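User: Hey, my collaborator sent me this sequence without any context and asked if I could get a structure. I don't really work with proteins. Can you help?
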Amino acid sequence: MGSLYVHFPWCLAKCPYCDFVSYKTERAAIDHEGYADAVILELRQRLNTLNVFSPSTIFFGGGTPSLWDPRALGRVIEAVGPANDVEITVECNPTSLDEERARDLARAGVNRLSIGTQSLRAEQLEFLGRLHDPDGAIRAIEGALAVPSLRVSTDLIFGLPEQKPEEAANQADRLASVGLAHLSCYQLTIEPGTRFGELAKIGRLPLADDGAVADGFLAIEEALAKRGLAHYEISNYAKPGQEARHNLGYWRGEDYLGVGCGAYGFVRAGDHGVRWRNQIDPLKYIEYTKNETGPTMTSEDLDAGALLRERIMLGLRTREGADLRRAAADLSIDPWTPQRLEAIARLEQRGRLVRDGDVLRIPPRAWLFTDDTAARLF
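Assistant: No problem. I've predicted the 3D structure and written it out in structure-token form, which is a compact way to encode the shape of the chain:
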């Protein structure tokens, strides 16, 4: 068991905050079938190196996978041959999603859509480099919700310049009111190598006040709780049973097979693992899937200590926490070193951490300090 991630590297525009592998292009310029051929070829090559692989989830990310012709995308699903209960998600942008496209994706085998709304304010969408307007986002969501077989989520970015906490909460509430059972609410982060990163480096990017960002985080949580959406991960909210199973796999340290241009993959063997990254140039990726070289660009071996640190870092992002007993069994390593026990005791005293037997959790009100808390446990 594990997850399958398929990367689609094209967008209609490159957002200034995005550091994912994506390239601006027109839909007509994409070789939809040729890219599907390459992904399927890589998938077969990867599967030949594994004894058994039966994914519990499939996730098409990008880029903008909703630009991909549903028939070509469906060929990839067909090549996997997933079981009936597999969660199959496609990331979508409002500019390439309507009810007709949603139905086409459902017919191709997709059962979950993740829509990149990001904001319901026109000036904020312009700042973020998005091509849609607020009404277009709502229409796309409503079109997806009109397809009974689809579970639907949307993304919202908060922590924008001059954004008041109540305004961020109102946007989250508006999205939930449409009928969504899952929302992902991300703080705007400035990544190096992006347009925003370049502007921030020279002091030309307006930034939000840290206090306002923290207040916005708490205000969104309160608003969505009233709508029945539980805060089950730092950036994710869902009604019971509507959690993103694919992302839960990442946070629990499960294997994920990554295929496609720029995709990452990870497979564990005993107490160590291997992480790889594919070629980030689409033409090279397609070319290398056709020969013995293969599309892998980099590969990294991870020992038990590194894997345990990742389990702690990712597990602490979730309400369920990091299960160190399970990690110890999987990795054949003692997680309870004297140094870690001392750090746990100090963090408990500060209200930053809760230990429940072998499980470590961060109280939701201390989630804002998760990165620092995890680092202290390394």
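In plain terms: The chain has two domains: 2-249, 321-376. You can pass these tokens on to your collaborator as they are.
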